[in-house]
Amino acid sequence: MREIAVFVGDNGSTAALTEPGRVIVYQRQQGKWKPVREILFSLERSLGMPEVRRQLAAMLEALGNCRVFVARTVSGLLYKELEQAGFSIWEFAGQPSSFLEYILVQEEFTVRQPATLQAVIPASMETEPGCYQVSLKEIQQSGSGLTSKQVLQPLLNGNFYCIEVVCSHIPPWLEAECACGRFDCKVERLAEGIKLVIKKQICG
């Protein structure tokens, strides 16, 4: 059965992972989403990074086999730790009932056709063969819930020459990709944010 973990605040809506709240694991049973377990979670950042990692590791262990995680926002170390643990990370604002089914459909679609995910991303545009312009800001503002990795990875794994990404900040996972030398990345400062130009080191 598919399970989705959602981090929520006191009002039952999604919260930022840096805020106090709880993780509710939902399971789809007979066509309906039902909460099956709950994990209290509140980061104590004042105790230092080792304690943050310990708290996060305990939460991840409690999630068991669930590998889909939703919060209002996830960034920095928290995003990196979830990603390294093999989670598919989504960012949504609102009540879980409004997005759980959508996420399940998209997750199953990605499993079946990982190379065609860009087809559901309206802000991606092929300006000419092998060249793309992607506005992460537009995608995030659209409320689709797609993360930067879900948007860009299909393009990065595909046959491209140049990808121009407009964003407010460079996602940590993408910085790591550029740092490892897989791509040639150049950053341009814009009035509305950042433009990252990505090219392959070796074009096939």
Indicate the overall shape: globular
Q: Terminal Cα separation, in Å?
A: 41 Å
* Number of E strands: 10
Helices, by number, come to 6
Mean pLDDT, all residues: 83
Low-confidence stretches: 114-120
Order of helix and strand elements from N to C terminus:
EEEHEHEHEEHHEHEE
Structural write-up:
This protein is of the alpha/beta class and 204 residues long. The protein is 29% helix and 32% strand. The protein has helices at residues 49-62, 76-84, 100-112, 136-141, 148-156, 172-179, and strands at residues 3-8, 21-29, 32-41, 68-71, 88-91, 124-128, 131-135, 162-167, 183-190, 193-200. The strands form 2 sheets. The protein has a 5-stranded mixed β-sheet with strand order 3-2-1-4-5, with helices on both faces. Strands 6-7-8-10-9 form a 5-stranded mixed β-sheet. The chain is globular and about 50 Å long. The termini are far apart. Mean pLDDT is 83; it is low at 114-120.
